[in-house]
Amino acid sequence: KQWYQRRVRGAKTISHVNNVAKLKERLESIQKGLPWIESLDVTVDLKIPADELKSIISDNFKQEMLFYKQNQVGVQQSIARLHSMGIATARPEDYFAEMVKSDDHMRKVKEKLVSKQLVMERTEKVSKMRKMKKLGKKVQQEVLKKRADDKKAMLDSVKRVRKGHQPDDDFEINTEPEPSTSQKGGGINRKRKAKDAKYGSGGKKKFARKNTAESYKDVSSFSSRIHSKPKRSAKNDKRMGNKSQRPGKSKRAGMKNKQASRK
Is residue 65 within 8 Å of residue 73, measured between CB atoms? Predict the structure, then answer.
């Protein structure tokens, strides 16, 4: 505290001086004396009462409204003064002016905007596809999990039935044969019937074609024309193509030597 008091006592005091003469002198040095059309400066005095001014100082909304009214009055005074000087303040309907930027520049700007829009659309599409892919994976995982749970529950039920811990009524198994898809309109399956006639319809298969005493004596199905060999004759040889037998190895070798000696 003592150190602070010593520091304050030794500090220099700043005096605020309102030197009007010097300020006016500086103002005259910076003034250029330009005509009003070059500066367009306007001073507006709204003549607000002192009581109302006190309430405006502490209210921001009233201050903004005061600035708006002040600017509005200044614009009205400036437009009237410009009209008195013969200067137009509105653009005519047939006014034509060249653009600041060239057509090539605007074309480049348009192409850039279009490319940005395409990139944004592509990005949005990719993000949407990723979300759909994640959703599809989630649904697939849920389906696989459900299948695994159902399979596990079925195997547990089978185990309980085998061990006798659960009655057969609780574990439903369809023991009735399903109707064949090849049968149309409940008719007879001809293919199945032919196979049953040829191979049988189940039962014992071993020694099924073994001869018995009755089958050995039964010769009703025997036909000499079908089961006997034809006799050897010239007619049958012609019918078979009259093919001669191939000579032996030694005979063929002798024939080959004879042909070589003739040459």
Answer: no
| Share in percent of the chain as helix, strand, coil (round to 5) | 60, 0, 40
Other beta carbons within 10 Å of 157: 14
Phi, psi of 27 (to 5 degrees): -65, -40
Q: Identify whether the C-beta of residue 66 lies closer than 8 Å to the C-beta of residue 74.
A: no
Phi, psi angles (nearest 5°) of residue 133: -65, -45
How far, in Å, CA of 158 to CA of 168, rounded? 10
- Residue 196's nearest CA partner among 188, 184, 206 is 188
Torsion angle defined by CA atoms of residues 140, 142, 144 and 146, in that order, rounded to the nearest 10 degrees: -150
Is residue 197 within 8 Å of 188, Cβ to Cβ? no
Round to whole Å and give the CA distance between 177 and 204: 23
Taking only the tens of pLDDT, the chain with its 263 residues reads: 444 444 545 555 666 778 899 999 888 888 777 888 888 888 888 888 888 888 888 888 989 999 999 999 999 999 999 999 998 888 877 777 777 888 889 899 999 999 999 999 999 999 988 888 888 888 888 888 899 999 989 988 888 887 776 555 554 555 555 555 554 556 778 888 888 888 777 767 677 778 888 888 888 877 777 777 666 665 655 555 556 778 889 889 988 888 888 76
